[in-house]
Amino acid sequence: VVFLNLPLYKASGSAAFLAAVLYFAAQGIFVSFADINFLAWNEIFCSLFALNLFYDPVSKIITLTAAIAAFSALATAKSRVSNDKSLFNFSNLILLSGAAINVVSMTRDIFTMYVFIEIIAVSAYIMIASGKTRRALAGGFKYIIASSIGSALMLFSMGVFFVFAGDTSFGSIAAAYESFSGNILMQAAVALFLCGLFVKGGLAPFGGWLLGAYSGAPAAVSVWLSGIIACACGIIALVRFAQFVIIPSGNAQTLLLIVGAVSIIVGALGALSASDFKKALNYSGISQTGYIVMVLGAGSQLALIAALFHFFNYGVFQSLLFVNSAAVEAQTGTVNINRLGGLSSRMPVTAATSAVGFLSLMGAPPFGGFFSKLLIILALWQSGNEFFAVTAVIGSILAAGYFLRLERKVFFGHIPKRLENIKEAGWYLLAPSILLALIALGSGIFFAFMLLKFFAPVV
Amino acid sequence: LLAAAVACSAFAVINLGALRAAVMLAVVSIITSIILFLLGAPQAAIAELIICAGLATVIFMSIIGPDKTPVSPKKLEALKRCIALPLFVLVCLVSFYMLTFDHITFIPALEPRFSPDSKDVLWHFRHIDLIGQAIILLTGIFGVAVLLKKSEGEK
Question: Rounded to two decimals, what is the model's pTM?
Answer without folding.
Answer: 0.87
